[in-house]
Design goal:
Blueprint lengths: L11 H6 L2 H16 L4 H21 L10 H14 L4 H20 L1 H4 L25 H13 L3 H13 L3 H4 L14 E6 L5 E5 L2 H14 L9 E2 L5 E2 L2 H19 L7 H14 L3 H6 L7 H8 L4 H6 L5 H9 L6
Antiparallel strand pairs: 1-2, 3-4
Length: 334
C-alpha cells in the first residue's frame, strides 16, 4: 500500500490561487471558532483539514467555491481520500466532519453566503475501524530484552529500546536524536526535537539508555553522521524512521524467544508501556527514586508532551476489571 500522501497535501503555491470566496468563508469560520472559545489545537485541525480540501478543489474541481460543490463532488473527494491517499477511516471522517461544520456555518449565515443546503451532510462517513490492541510491556520484560540485545552486541537496538522506554517518545521524535547528546555522561536529555503540532522539546533518558548508548557509540566508531542512528558497516548513512520501525520488529522476535510467546509490540507500545510503568511505579527509575506509587497524571502529561491530560489518561491501562475482581474476590472472564 502506498504511503499517506494527504499528509503532504498542502501546497503553498496552489494555496495562493485557491478560490477567494472559499478562503474568506474559511477565515470567517475560524473566527467563529475562536469566538466560541475552541482550543487552539481544535482550530488548527479544522484549518489544516479544510485548507487541504480547498487545495484539492483548486487542483481537481476547477477551483470552484466550496459552496458550489455538489454531492457528487464530495463523494469523489471521499473516494480520493480513502482510495488514493489511504487515510484512515477516522481521519477521513474527521475531514468530512470539518467540511460539514464549515458548510453548516455558511448555511446558518445564509444572508452572508446565500447557501441553503449543506450537501456534504448527505455523504456518509466510513465505518469505524477496529481498535488496535495495545500491548503493554513490563519493566522486567524490557530489562530482559535490553540484556539480551547487549549479550548479542546489538547495542544500537538496545539504545533505541531504552530511549523509547525512558522518554515515552514517538517514532518521529526518536528519529531526530543526535549522537552528541550522549557524549556528556552527566546529561539526561537529548537535542531538541520537533513533535506533534510543532512542539519543540528534548527527550529525557536515564541509566539504561546511558549504558546502551555508550556501548553503541564505542561500537560505532568515528563517522560524519550526526544522527544517533546509522546503518551500514564500511559506508554508513543515517537510518530512517522505517529502519527504526523494522528494528522494533526484530526486537519483537527476540522477546518472543525470551518469553516463549509472541507479543505484538511496536514503538507505540513502548510509549504506552512507559507511561503505564511511570504511572504505577514499576518503571526502574521510579524504583530508583523511591516513587513506589508512581507519578501523577499531570506530571506524565508533561513527559508525554500532551496538550490535554485526557490524552495521557487514554494511554494507560483500564484497570476496572482488576479492581472489581479485588473488591469481590472473584474472577471475571473476558
Amino acid at each position: 500500500m502506498s504511503k499517506n500522501v494527504y499528509n503532504n497535501f498542502f501546497d503553498p503555491e496552489i494555496w495562493k490561487i485557491v478560490n477567494l470566496d472559499s478562503k474568506e468563508l474559511l477565515d470567517d469560520f475560524l473566527l467563529e471558532l475562536k469566538q466560541n472559545k475552541k482550543s487552539s489545537g481544535t482550530i488548527y485541525q479544522y484549518s489544516s483539514d479544510i485548507r487541504g480540501t480547498l487545495i484539492y478543489i483548486a487542483k481537481n474541481l476547477d477551483n470552484k467555491s466550496i459552496l458550489d460543490l455538489t454531492k457528487k463532488d464530495f463523494r469523489r473527494y471521499s473516494l480520493y481520500l480513502s482510495e488514493e491517499c489511504h487515510v484512515s477511516n477516522a481521519r477521513h471522517n474527521r475531514i468530512l466532519s470539518a467540511i460539514r461544520s464549515l458548510l453548516t456555518f455558511a448555511e446558518e449565515n445564509d444572508d452572508d453566503y446565500e447557501y441553503e443546503t449543506n450537501v456534504a451532510k448527505k455523504v456518509r462517513g466510513l465505518p469505524k475501524e477496529s481498535v488496535r490492541e495495545i500491548y503493554f510491556l513490563t519493566d522486567e520484560q524490557i530489562q530482559k530484552l535490553k540484556d539480551e540485545l547487549i549479550k548479542r552486541e546489538e547495542y544500537q537496538k538496545a539504545t533505541l529500546l531504552c530511549l523509547a522506554y525512558d522518554s515515552c517518545a514517538r517514532k518521529a521524535e526518536l528519529a531526530q536524536v543526535e549522537k552528541f547528546s550522549f557524549y556528556d555522561t552527566n546529561k539526561n536529555n537529548t537535542n531538541k526535537v520537533t513533535g506533534k503540532r510543532r512542539k519543540i522539546f528534548s527527550l529525557i533518558y536515564f541509566d539504561w539508555t546511558k549504558e546502551c548508548a555508550k556501548l553503541w557509540i564505542d561500537q560505532r566508531g568515528e563517522d560524519e553522521i550526526n544522527s544517533l542512528w546509522a546503518i551500514g558497516v564500511t559506508s554508513k548513512k543515517k537510518a530512517t524512521k522505517e529502519n527504526l520501525y523494522n528494528w522494533f520488529l526484530i526486537m519483537r522476535d527476540v522477546l518472543a524467544e525470551i518469553e516463549g510467546k509472541t507479543i505484538e509490540f511496536n514503538v507505540h507500545s513502548l510509549r504506552h508501556s512507559s507511561l503505564q510503568n511511570y504511572s504505577d511505579g514499576s518503571h526502574y527509575i521510579c524504583k530508583k527514586l523511591g516513587m513506589i506509587n508512581g507519578f501523577p497524571l499531570e506530571k506524565l502529561k508533561l513527559l508525554a508532551n500532551h496538550s490535554d491530560i485526557s490524552t495521557t489518561s487514554n494511554y494507560l491501562k483500564d484497570n476496572s476489571i482488576d479492581e472489581l475482581e479485588e473488591m469481590f474476590k472473584i474472577e471475571i472472564e473476558n
